[in-house]
Each structure stands twice: as structure tokens, then as C-alpha cells.
Amino acid sequence: MIPTKKEWMKALNDRHGTMFQEKISSTTVAVCGLGGLGSDIAIALARAGIGKLILIDFDTVDITNLHRQQYKANQIGMSKTEALQENLKEINPYLETDIYTIRLDENNAKNILSGADIICEAFDNAECKAMLTNFVLDKMQDKYIVAASGMAGLGSANAIHTRKISKRFYLCGDEVSDVNDGIGLVSSRVMLCAAHQAHTVLRIIANEFEV
Amino acid sequence: MVKINGEDLNVGGKSVAEYLNSAGYDLMRVAVELNGGIVPKAQYEDTIFKNGDSVEIVSFVGGG
After folding, report:
1. Helices and strands (H and E) in chain A: how many
2. Structural domain count of chain B
3. Which of B31, B36, B58 comes nearest A167 by C-beta?
4. Residue of A nearest to B64 (CA)
5. B39 domain-assigned
6. CB A42 within 8 A of CB A88
């Protein structure tokens, strides 16, 4: 039995307290890139009862994604936006989502991201990470950006950290482990970094701005 | 002196672009914060470090 929306909200309010939950429920978060980071961030925020998720990725689910990304074998070939939306709705049937199956760039970012309060950079490619971070900090000065750099390999879990770079810019990761060095991405370490990002989002919502 | 990523460096008078190139950064992978504000990429050539500036250079690596 799927709970009613009233039952759902009561459970969230009981867990988080009504005041904090109201803030979470009235926040829109954009997740840019729906790979290991983005799919994990989205699930954490969907469970927390986030108001709305804007989900952006141009890619489709591939068999090589399944070792770390929150998709299922029967979703291979689907667009990541639609597959993740489906999975999120199974977790939280009352989640509001906007999906964009598109490659985010400097020409379309402003339109797509304008409704977001907080933007999570969850791309794979270093140049794309830098592009989005620069764009948001330069052109969208009312937004927070929570970016990620360095989560590849089997390095210590404890090396993954969150750093506040400036007032609206948080960076999660170990800042050095490149996907092209060594064994690539391992699900547990990517999850750690995604958890840092999702947790930073919830702390910003709670007005806890220091790390 | 200019504080770059926590380290005091004698680079006052250099432009952001000059410093990034001399220090071996890939300009396509960085975000540069000068005294708490982003330096847009288009202004790397024209933005000159002054003594007392505080700079954070984030150099992204791949993976996500």
C-alpha cells in the first residue's frame, strides 16, 4: 500500500521536525549530471522530502554504469533522466521532478537552472565541472553551487571532505583522485562524495553554512 | 605577498592568466576566487594580483 501524501508528510515532519521539513519541502535543487554522484544525491534528497528536483543528463543507462549508479539492469538503454525519475518516484511518490535530457552548457544553463535554489555539480568531466561552477558563480549570483572533485579509486574514505571555498561555493571530494588515474570509480567512494554533497545541501537549507 | 590556496607567494603584479600558466594549471579546469568573488575566465588576462590578495584556485579532476 502506497501511503497517502498526508501520511507521507507526517512521517517526514515526525523525523525532521515541522520547521526544518517545511524548509526542505520548499527548496528546489538542480542535479547536473546523473551518474554515480547525481543519482546518489537525488536519492538522498528525495528521501529527505526535497520540494523539487531538476534532473539534467543527456546520456542513457549503460551496462558499465551499473557498478556505481542507481539504475537497474532492466533500465539499460533508457535515458538517465527518465530512469532516475522512475526510481525516485518508487522511493517518494510525491516528489516533484523536472527532467531535461540535454547536454547542459553556457547557452542553456540559465534557463534550466533559474528555478533552483541550490545547484549540485555532478558531472564526470573536469572541464564541464569547471564550466558549470564558473557559470553559476559568475552569472547566477543568487544560487549556491555544491561541486565535486576527486572521488576515484580506493583511497581512504576519510580523505573525502567538504570545503567551503566562498560564500556560495562548496567543494566535496578529496580534490586529487582523477578518474583517469588507477582503477577508476568505485561505488562506495562515489557514494561518500555524493553523501557529502547531499548533506551540504541539507545544511544550507538548515542555515548551517559552515562545514 | 599574495595568499594562494593558503600559501604566501611573491606574485603581486602578475595577472591571473600569467600565474595560472606559470604554475602549470589547465585553464579549462579551474575556478578562481579572488578575495571571495569569482574571477570570470574572460578577465584572467586583465585581473592583476595585488599584495594582500587572498586567492583560492580550485582545479577540478574528472569523475562523477
Report:
1. 7, 7
2. 1
3. B36
4. A124
5. yes
6. yes
Cβ-nearest to A138 among B40, B60, B63: B40
The pTM assigned to this predicted structure is: 0.97
Task: Give the pairing type, strands A118-121 and A144-148.
Answer: parallel
Interface test with A, best of B16, B38, B47 (most A CBs within 10 A): B38
Q: What is the pLDDT of residues A10-31, one digit of tens each?
A: 999 999 999 999 999 999 999 9
> What pLDDT is attached to residue A183?
87
Q: Do B61 and A178 touch (CB under 8 A)?
A: yes
How sure is the predictor about A182, in pLDDT bands with cuts at 50, 70 and 90?
A: confident
Residue A49 has pLDDT above 90, yes or no: yes
Identify the residue whose cell numbers are 590578495: B53
Contact B61 A177 (CB under 8 A): yes
- Give the pLDDT confidence of B1-60 residue by residue, as tens digits: 999 999 999 999 999 999 999 999 999 999 999 999 999 999 999 999 999 999 999 999
B5: nearest CA in chain A? A165
Residues 6+ apart with CB under 8 A from A61: A69, A71, A75, A76, A77, A78, A79, A80, A83
Query: What are the structural domains, with CATH classification, of chain A?
Result: 5-148 (3.40.50.720)
Quote the ipTM score. Answer: 0.97
Give me the helix-helix angle, A187-205 and A36-47, nearest 10°: 40
Residue B64 lies inside a defined structural domain of this protein? no
| Portion 138-197 of A in contact with B at CB < 8 A | 138, 147-152, 165-167, 169, 171, 175-180, 184-185, 190
Structural domain boundaries enclosing B42: 2-59
- Domain of B31, CATH number, reads 3.10.20.30
